[in-house]
Predict the structure of FAD-binding PCMH-type domain-containing protein.
Amino acid sequence: LQGQSPVVEAMVDTSRVSGLDRITNDNDHIIIGCAVTHTQIVHEKSIIRHGTCLVESCGVIGGPQVRNVATLAGNVAHALPAGDGSIGLLALGGEIEVADASGSRWMALEDTFLGPGKSVIDHHRAMLTRLRFRPTEARAGSAFTRVMRPQGVALPMISMAARLQLDDSNTITAVRISLGPAGPVPYLAEPAMDVLMSGPASPEQFNKA
């Protein structure tokens, strides 16, 4: 409904559909309904503990009034390269569930974005219903940060989230680093991930990446 979008003749309100505003856990994943707000995510204990970068990224979107009504699903569906929530979820290996008349399917978040404001979701025939990610385990963690212009304008110069898994010898056994808006879509920094993978979790290794 923003900018040069055509006039909308009809809209479907899903805010009263039962279950879409809930955060659940099926043992393998933390599942976030499409109506869950950023504020809900910021205060959800399971995500604070097992998806820290998502809490941190959702916590800087807009102001309190925006976070009280805006959703992570909306942040993802808009497919903007500076979508902080999308960047946080991408680092966690997030997936989205898309439903249409033929049924529903899960897909990797990184396969969702086609370009600025464009995604594989057909907004006329399909709906993003849920999002999910695998919670971090022992010796794993995640974090999010961003760099803003000195004037404090709305969009960041760069946002980044990372998730690391270490073994008992402090070697990195799994890593995901997501970035935006450094390109047309949020993306994984695979060259930096390759540098870190199987190396020590040390300042020297991080500087190389």
Remarks:
- The domain at 23-133 is CATH 3.30.465.10 (Uridine Diphospho-n-acetylenolpyruvylglucosamine Reductase; domain 3).
- The mean pLDDT is 92.
- The chain has eight helices and eleven strands.
